[in-house]
Amino acid sequence: MIEPARYTTVDAALSRTEHAVQAITHLAERAAPGARLGTKGELQEWCGVAKGTFNEALRILQSRGVISVRPGPGGGLFVASPTPIARLGNSILSLDAAEGDVADAVRIRDALDPLLIEDALAHGSATDIARMRADLAAMQRAIDQTDATDFVHSNWKLHATIARVSPNAILKSIYLSLLDLIESHTVSVEPTGEEPLWDYIRQRYQLHIDLVDAIDSRDRHSALRLIHTHNTTQGEGPG
């Protein structure tokens, strides 16, 4: 682990949370995937921030796929092994200063997804399915045009369409509000030109096609399996 004296602040405009995120990110970039960076206590002291600030930084780092946290003896912070969707989250999804809020919103959204899929299975009409397929077509156009920004927004629009099928007004309102929060803090999505990233986006698109097909055919087992795979807080990114 790098000695505390070697860490220097590079931007006085950053918040203390952002400084901690930046410092640990730089530390992780110089280590191999899976490498142990230190305990929470050691790294909190190294960053020179309060416990609450450090925990907020950890949430952001985990949501970006930079680190993993392991409890117990020998635990601590470890460099994550990034997946292609983590690169989507880190490299091309640009957020404003509310990264922690967005990460929390995504976690809650993921927890609500299975409930909305159940409602879509029970209540989805032919008109609802047609709207979902129109959103899928917009996602395909974004892929054809290599427009990552449009792909992400079209993806969120599909989830909003699925949510609107639910007869549960409270559930629907909460979910749509979470989507609005996530989208409102998204500044831009910039393509990196990495082919593995676009391969993953195409895979993600196919997952959504399969999900809509399962809803259309009332295949509950497949739909719930797919939404579990879709879960973006299992080491993946927005989608």
Counted by DSSP, the helix tally is: 10
Instruction: Label the overall shape.
Output: elongated
**Oligomer, anyone?**
single chain
| Average pLDDT score | 81
Written overview of the protein:
Residues 10-82 form the HTH gntR-type domain. InterPro entries: GntR_C, TF_FadR/GntR_C, Tscrpt_reg_HTH_GntR, WH-like_DNA-bd_sf, WH_DNA-bd_sf. The chain has 239 residues and is mainly alpha-helical. It has helices at residues 16-29, 40-47, 51-63, 84-92, 99-123, 126-144, 148-163, 169-184, 195-216, 220-230, and strands spanning 36-38, 67-70, 76-79, 93-95, 186-189. The strands form two sheets. A three-stranded antiparallel sheet has the order 1-3-2. A two-stranded antiparallel sheet has the order 4-5. Helix 4 crosses helix 9, helix 5 runs antiparallel to helix 10 (220-230) and helix 9 (195-216) runs antiparallel to helix 10.
Keywords:
mainly alpha; 239 residues; three-stranded antiparallel sheet; elongated; two-stranded antiparallel sheet; 64% helix; 5 strands; disordered N terminus
In short:
With 239 residues, the chain is mostly helical.
SSE order and pairing:
Layout: H1 16-29, E1 36-38, H2 40-47, H3 51-63, E2 67-70, E3 76-79, H4 84-92, E4 93-95, H5 99-123, H6 126-144, H7 148-163, H8 169-184, E5 186-189, H9 195-216, H10 220-230
Antiparallel strand pairs: 1-3, 2-3, 4-5
Helix pairs in contact: 1-3, 3-5, 4-9, 5-8, 5-10, 6-7, 6-9, 7-8, 9-10
Keywords: DNA-binding, Transcription, Transcription regulation
Pfam family, one: FCD
Domain HTH gntR-type: 10-82
